[in-house]
Automatic annotation (TrEMBL):
Superkingdom field: Eukaryota
Gene transcribed to yield this protein: COLEC10
Pfam families: Lectin_C
Organism for this UniProt entry: Branchiostoma lanceolatum (Common lancelet)
Protein name per Swiss-Prot or TrEMBL: COLEC10 protein
Annotated C-type lectin domain residues: 1-86
InterPro entries cross-referenced by the UniProt entry: C-type_lectin-like, C-type_lectin-like/link_sf, Ca-Dep_Lectins_ImmuneDev, CTDL_fold
Amino acid sequence: MCYKFATDEKTYSDAKSSCRATGGHLAMPKDQATNDFLAKLAKARYSEIDIFPWIGLTYQVQHGTWMWDDGTTLGTGQWNNWAPGD
């Protein structure tokens, strides 16, 4: 795996397009270890500026249903340490 952190602000759609243009995709932290790893990298990279990286989880495809960029739905039985109500 390879993770790339941009230095400019992008919308979710622009970030997703940028990743695809280089043959990649937005990160999909589907487990605690991957999420912790990415959070640590992001904190080190962006601690002095107000940029928050996008991950490949959205409800833009079907409003109200969280979906990963690979087409799977965020559901029960999966790791999901997300804010309540979000």
